[in-house]
Amino acid sequence: MNEPAWQIPGYLDSRDGRLIMDGVDLVALAAARQTPLYVYSAKRIVETARSLRQAFASRHRSATICYASKALSAIKVLRLIRDEGLSIEVNSAGELFRAKLAGFAPGQIISNGVSKSVEDLRAALSPPIKAINVDSLFELSRIIVVARDLKARANIALRVVPEVDSSTSPGNRTGSEGTKFGIRQSELPVALGMIRSAGDAVLAAGLHGHIGSQITSTAPFELAATRLAELFRGIQTALGYRLEHINIGGGFPLMYMRGAKHSPQGDIFCPRIDFDDIAKSVMPILLERLGPDVEVIVEPGRRLVGDSAVMLSAVENTKERSDGCWLYLDAGYNLLIESYTYKWYYHALTANKLSEPTRDFRLVGPLCDNGDAFFDVDGEQTVERLVAAAPAFAEQREVLESLLIRLPKMRQLAASTVPGDIIAFLDAGAYTLDQFTANNGRLRPEVGMIGTAGLYEIIRRRDTQTDLLFNEVV
Ligand SMILES: Cc1ncc(COP(=O)(O)O)c(C=O)c1O
Known about the structure:
Low-confidence stretches: none
CATH class of the largest domain: Mainly Beta
Structural class: alpha/beta
Number of strands: 20
Strand content: 15-25%
Mean pLDDT: 96
Distance between the termini: 60 Å
CATH architecture of the largest domain: Beta Barrel
Radius of gyration: 24 Å
Helix content: 25-40%
Bound molecules: pyridoxal-5'-phosphate
CATH superfamily of the largest domain: Lyase, Ornithine Decarboxylase, Chain A, domain 1
C-alpha cells in the first residue's frame, strides 16, 4: 500500500492508525498533556539546519546561515540552532534580547526591521552586532546619531529594493517598491554620500535584499542575486573600500500540501523547489560575480523550523449544516494566526484514526467570530455576494472561486471523527508560537519538544488563568 503523502518517513509516521513523531505517540501525548498542544521535534530542526549548511557551504567557502528568528524565537530552539553553528537574524531589541539569552555572540547577529526605533538601535550597538540592515535614508541618519551618542561605530548593510516580484501571497512579498521594505535603488547615491561623510559612526559591511517568504521558484532568487551583485560592485567602487558580505535574505519555501500539484493559491503550498535548488542556482551567480572571498549570507526562517511541529487540538463539538458536518476544535486562529491573516494552509488529520477512510468536514475554532474557521470565510462570502449582485457572475463561478477562495472549503478527515478525537495540524512550526493570542480568555497552550534523545520536554508552559492578567493593572 502507498504511504500517505503527508508522511515523512523516520520523522512523521503512523502506527496502529495513530500519529507518531520521532517514534512518540502524539495521541497519547495529547491525552497526557492536554490540548491544544504544540509538539516540536529537535531532531528535525537539527537535521534541517545541517542540510541547509551543507547545501550552501558545499557551494561557497564563505557561506553563513543566519536563522530568521521571527519564524520562531523560543529560547530552547534558538539554543539548538546556535549549537549547530548557525548565526541569527533578529527584528527588534526584543528578538536581540532572546538571541543573546540563547548564547549568540554579537558577531553572529544581524538586525533587520522596516522601522527601527532608537531603542532597537541602541541595543544593536551595545556592543555593535555583525550588521544592521538599513531600511531607509531616515533610518541611516538615525543610526549615525545613535552611534555617535554611544561613541560606537555601526556595521551596516543597506537593504535595497531589488525590484523582484514573485507569486507568493501578497502579505509575504517584499521585493519591490510597492511594498514597505528597503531603500530604492535611486536613493543609493544619497545613502552612500551619508556613509562617506559619517565614517566615524558607520562602516558599510554589506548589502542586503530579501524578496519575500515562501518563494516557490528559483527565478526570483536568481534575478535578485544578479541585481544585488551588480549593486554590490557599484557600492564598493563608490565607497572606495571592500564590503564584507552580500545578504540575499530568506524566503525558502516549505511543502505544506505534500502530494498536491495545485493549491487554492496556485503553487504556494506545493512548491516545486527546495533550498538545495536555490543554493545550486544562486551560489554560482555570486561566486562568478563577486569571487569566493565575499561572504554570502542567507536568512531562512520558515524552511528551518516550519515542518518541525504539529499542533494537536481536540474536537469539542459538532453540528450538522446544509453543507455537511462541522467540527468545532479547542484551538482557533489565535493559535495558528496566519491561517486567518494570510489564509495559510496547514494540513489536518484525525490523529487517532489515520487508518480510516476519510470524508469531508468543515473545520472551525471556538472563538466568538465567524472568521475563526479553517476555510476562507471572506472569500466564500465575496463570491456569493458578487453572484447575488450580478447574476451573470454565476456563469463564471469556477473562475471566481479559484481567484477569491484561498483555502479548501472542506477538510478530509477520518469519516467517524467525533468530539473527543484529536485533529493534528502539520507543519505548524513557523510563524505560530510568537503570534499566539489569548482571545476570549483562552489559555495559550503548552509547547513541548521531543529532544534528540526522544524525551518530551516542555519549552513553554500552558497559561494559567492568572497569566491572562499578566501586566494588567487590577
Ligand atoms: C529580512 C528577512 N529575512 C528573512 C526572513 C525569513 O523569511 P522566511 O521565513 O520565509 O525564510 C524574513 C521574513 O519575511 C525577512 O523579513
